[in-house]
Amino acid sequence: MEQRVLRLERAVMTQRLLLLAAIALIAILGFRQSPGEIKTTSLQIVNKQGKPAALFYGTEEGFGGYLYGRAVEGADYQPAIKLEGSRVGGQIDLFDENGRQVIEVTRGTDGGAITIFNNKTNRPVASVYADRDDGARIELNATDGSERLFLQSDLIGAGMKMILPRGIPALSLYSSLDGGYLALYDEKGNTVQRLPKSD
Description:
The protein has 199 residues and is of the alpha+beta class. It is built from one helix and 16 strands. It is 15% helix and 51% strand. The longest helix is centred in the N-terminal third of the chain and has 30 residues. It is elongated, with a radius of gyration of 29 Å.
């Protein structure tokens, strides 16, 4: 009688193992389309503690995804990197330990762009990007996002402008095929000096 019980327990254990193996095989084959290839609309990766480490998913335009991290032991896991892709290009966002965006790297219709954010105001304070006029542009802003300085280049020249807090220009410097000029402005935006002087 005891031996029958042992044989029955072994048979039940074997059936359980076969059932688990079958479920695992079905799960794998459900994603696998061909040898060495896995296709799925969403993939989540967790670490040894079961916390999120990465998430990738398909969208109508392309794909999206997150990579997670944490600043110190015991802290909550936050998105550290965000990835996006579409027909017009891709984007990578970097976040600080509190989940605030600090850097954005973009590929758009005119070329590439990098934007740096202030992590207190979440406003862009610096940008470098390809301009649609066959050149590039660099912008430096205050922490509230208002523009203070920009440098720009194109096929025929370059320019620089410094801007007062109220959005009024303080200095402009431009060059082109026929030379260059410098202009200084007062607090109301009126030109006080221009070189060369206009007739």
